[in-house]
Design a protein that fits this description.
By secondary structure, the protein is mainly α. It is 76% helix and 0% strand. The chain has helices at residues 10-31, 41-65, 72-104, 110-117, 121-124, 135-156, 158-179, 190-193, 196-213, 220-236, 244-247, 249-268, 275-286, 288-305, 312-344. Helix 1 (10-31) crosses helix 15, helix 3 packs antiparallel against helix 15 (312-344) and helix 6 runs antiparallel to helix 7. The two termini are 13 Å apart.
Length: 346
């Protein structure tokens, strides 16, 4: 099966774009001194926007590659395609940060740069990431290497696949109920939180949504009702204080459930938005990776090199979206197509 012929699901692009925007505003707002604790919507999106990315990633990989990966050869081709998708833009950011650190005298090590441009940090030391937010990219690369095994389980038997899902949940909740301490701020346990196996169940859940619901038609009214209800719950559930309350105990269970429902609803949603709304969301969805990885660099550049101090909450997002869309079309797509050509040869 040729995966490139599979049509994109626009609603998933919309959600992906909206999450990228929310994470960008979360970071820029925090850098500008706004309060972003667990009772704020942006504070919650700063944590669970990335969680939704993981779920979307698993779902997207399943939609495109579920029948593509059938043996070791196609599994290797899958990894090659992901490398050509992930590495080029990451390289731009990492080299910029490396040379910036050299100029400022901080001296980021050459070994650290190598670990980042190869995404090996995700496998060896997840906390050794250079770019803000790139810990999740390291996590993703770990998940991509495990994807053929997950597909094999589901393609052999849905029961076996769901057993794999159950075990991934056990691991994830072991982190949130036993390894992470509710009495210590999340920042003090960040290296533990970003361990790939803490969030692995989210990626597996995305794959599970595809395999369990791909052939099921859902009532549009029910889907819309679930979506509205889950969004309201996400915004107004009574959690306060440090972000640790969102990722441990009952908070972890509730917010993970909400995120799964939101992704499911966007997956099964049937809605026709006006073109002036749908098109920007679609373009934003395509540029998501750039928006996610570039906005910290653009913020730093505007603040320190252009010496702009005011209006950053407007200027940085606008610049980020424009540059991300440009790079997607004239840089990222070229490497994506190279990856496809290399792996299309028999």
């Amino acid at each position: 099966m040729n995966s490139k012929k599979i049509a994109r699901i626009e609603t998933l692009d919309w959600l992906r774009g909206l999450m990228a925007l929310s994470i960008m505003f979360y970071h820029v707002s925090g850098w500008e001194g706004f309060r972003l604790e667990s009772d704020t919507i942006l504070g919650r999106l700063g944590i669970y926007g990335v969680s939704i990315f993981f779920i979307l990633s698993g779902l997207s990989m399943a939609i495109v590659y579920n029948s593509y990966i059938i043996n070791l050869k196609t599994a290797v081709k899958f990894i090659i395609r992901r490398v050509f998708r992930i590495w080029p833009l990451l390289w731009l950011v990492c080299f910029y940060l490396f040379f910036q650190s050299r100029l400022s005298g901080e001296g980021c090590s050459l070994l650290g740069l190598i670990f980042n441009i190869t995404t090996l940090f995700g496998f060896i030391k997840p906390s050794a990431y250079m770019a803000t937010g790139s810990w999740s990219i390291g996590n993703e690369m770990v998940y991509y290497f495990l994807t053929p095994a997950i597909f094999s389980c589901y393609n052999y038997s849905k029961i076996l696949g769901n057993l794999f899902l159950f075990m991934s949940f056990i691991i994830g909740f072991f982190f949130s109920f036993y390894l992470l301490n509710q009495n210590i701020n999340l920042s003090g346990q960040w290296s533990l939180y970003i361990n790939p196996f803490n969030n692995f169940f989210l990626y597996v859940s995305g794959i599970a949504i595809y395999y369990n619901f791909k052939s099921i038609e859902c009532n549009s009214v029910l889907v819309n009702f679930l979506l509205i209800g889950s969004v309201v719950a996400f915004c107004f559930l009574p959690f306060f204080g440090d972000h640790i309350v969102l990722v441990t105990g009952i908070g972890r269970i509730l917010f993970v459930a909400i995120c799964l429902i939101i992704v499911f609803c966007f997956y099964k949603m049937k809605i026709n938005l006006p073109p002036f709304v749908a098109k920007p969301l679609e373009l934003l969805g395509l540029s998501t990776y750039g928006v996610y990885i570039l906005h910290p660099v653009i913020y730093s550049f505007v603040l320190n090199f252009l010496n702009v101090k005011k209006g950053l909450l407007v200027l940085v997002p606008l610049l980020t979206i424009f540059i991300s869309f440009f790079l997607y079309n004239y840089f990222e797509l070229k490497f994506i197509n190279i990856g496809k050509r290399l792996t299309s040869k028999k």
